[in-house]
Amino acid sequence: MIAPNLLRGEKVRLTAVTSNDLATITRWWSDPDFLRLYDTAPAAPRNDEQISRRLDLSQTSPDIFLFAVRLLDDEEELIGLLEMDGVSWPHRTTFMSIGIGDARYRSQGYGHEAMHLALNFAFNELNLYRVCLTVFSYNEPAIALYEHIGFTREGVYREHIERDGHRYDMYLYGLLRREWVPGR
């Protein structure tokens, strides 16, 4: 049986990132709070050209799947990005990351649903076996989400990043196809 709406849930849908999204993504990359949750790189603003180059790379690589997270009731509004990066086809593994760009859309279930859509895509469309992700120890809402979905903490990169003079761990999580429970 084929899933009727592979990339569409009750609240959000996953779509391609378009050139119309560039201004929104550039705005997110100017928000240090967003960047400190999303990336280990310094929280420095990026301009349209830098963001455009990054998006171009993700759209031309067969090993990267980048999705825009959009609300169902708004055809255009971009609320987040979800990426499967570095798919290793021989081993059927990938790393996943998600970022809800605007704080007003966080902690409302949109990331949860987007993760489920992406995991369904990863396991049932791409036929992957393992999905990994990393998260900073101070990002407690994300940790709670990943563990609720079924990810297992598999390791710790101890004191991996430094922010504001404090060292923080980065956790490695993994989810195997046989462990995933759709709708959890």
Topology:
Blueprint: E1 12-15, H1 22-28, H2 32-38, H3 48-60, E2 65-71, E3 78-88, E4 93-100, H4 110-125, E5 130-136, H5 140-149, E6 152-163, E7 166-176
Parallel strand pairs: 4-5
Antiparallel strand pairs: 1-2, 2-3, 3-4, 5-7, 6-7
Shape field? globular
Helix content: 25-40%
Number of distinct helices: 5
At the first level of CATH, the class is Alpha Beta
Question: What pattern of helices and strands is seen along the backbone?
Answer: EHHHEEEHEHEE
The rounded Rg comes to: 16 Å
Query: In percent, how much strand structure appears in the residues?
Result: 25-35%
User: What is the fold named in CATH at topology level?
Assistant: Aminopeptidase
Number of domain units: 1
Q: Please name the CATH architecture.
A: 3-Layer(aba) Sandwich
* Head-to-tail CA distance between termini: 21 Å
Would you count the extended β strands for me?
7
3D structure, described in words:
By secondary structure, the protein is α+β, with helices and mostly antiparallel strands. The chain has five helices and seven strands, in the order βαααβββαβαββ. The chain has a seven-stranded mixed sheet with strand order 1-2-3-4-5-7-6, sandwiched between helices.
